[in-house]
Amino acid sequence: MNLETLVVTTERTTLDLLLFRRFKREVAGLVEATLAVNPGIAARGPYLPVGTSVATPAPAPAQTVARPLVSLYD
What gap in Å lies between CA 29 and CA 72, rounded to an integer? Predict the structure, then answer.
């Protein structure tokens, strides 16, 4: 598992906001996986203190689903 370290740089940053800022999308199960890798981080409260280092697993690339093209003029 590849781990990436993120550092909190702004006040009032939650874990899910930190992950969203890094990966620019919501990833199912990423918050839970990050909590598992960082034991005790939930005890810091809802807002992570500035300067907190958080190790996070890299999510899998986004999967796209091919959908049939619908045309109004066929």
Answer: 38
